[in-house]
Amino acid sequence: MLKDKRNKDEVIEAHAASGKVSRKEFEKELAKLQVELTRLQAWVKDKGARIIVVFEGRDTAGKGGVISRITARTSPRVYRHVALPVPSGREKTQVFIQRYVAHFPAAGEIVLFDRSWYNRAGVERVMGFVTDEDYERFLTMVPAVEREMIVNNGIILRKYFLDVSQDEQRRRFEARIKDPMRHWKLSPMDTESVRRWWDYTAAYQRMIKATDTPSAPWYIVPADNKRRARLNLIRHLLDSIPYKKVDVDLPKIPKAQQRPKNVTDGLGAGQPIPNHY
């Protein structure tokens, strides 16, 4: 578990009043949390634990950003980022959770769902991609499915909803339009969420009310301030799992063999790339 929590709390709370966390403080605290994420990783592998983390939220809320910070210093063999594309014609006829089950963790894995089966209660509901009957069935069934198929099956489940204000969402979309490196994040479906803000608000309110259960509660992450949201979410995730530090047997670096007489330095073939930098 995290140590010296008092100092970490003081750093975050010192900036909370102003609503700001400097880049320097953010990087400093993030580095500490990333060390803990690797310790969680070692514990998961050692115990054969299985963890699912669901990231839901409004468009531009920062789901991908916090996932990238979690996976930046961890093993992709343990932390798996799952972001499924639009369902195929066949997948649209499946049970709502069916295509996600294939990505559930095996022993020693943590799966990070960048959006999940809750698409049915969010974008599918607002954009009319699901019938009223299927929507109501989803809200009725999903608590039981999460309890019986996930939690009671020994999988640790955490559900996070990242929320941003209406003005902040618009500002972030405008920033994406101005930044060529973020154009890939734009789609008509995403920007439609600006116009249909209140439709999404109503959908998310009902979704959370219907699926916030003792066995699988929703954790709400205010995300107008990205740095604070990322630190707070990662910290909560770590605090919510009773992991312990596992001693890792580190390999020793052996002495290199002597070079044979018939072998020269370099590879001797192939074309080196131009040295531009």
TrEMBL record:
Keyword Phosphoprotein in annotation: no
InterPro entries membership: P-loop_NTPase, Polyphosphate_phosphotransfera, PPK2-related, PPK2_PA0141
Keywords: ATP synthesis, Kinase, Transferase
Pfam families per record: PPK2 (PF03976)
EC category name: transferase
Job of this protein: Uses inorganic polyphosphate (polyP) as a donor to convert GDP to GTP or ADP to ATP.
Polyphosphate kinase-2-related domain residues: 21-246
Thylakoid in keyword set: no
Protein name (database record): ADP/GDP-polyphosphate phosphotransferase
Catalytic activity: [phosphate](n) + ATP = [phosphate](n+1) + ADP
Self-association and partners: Homotetramer.
GO terms (BP aspect): ATP biosynthetic process
Homology family: Belongs to the polyphosphate kinase 2 (PPK2) family. Class I subfamily.
A molecular function (GO) term: polyphosphate kinase activity
The EC number(s) this enzyme carries: 2.7.4.-
Source organism superkingdom: Bacteria
Region (Disordered): 253-277
Organism: Bradyrhizobium shewense
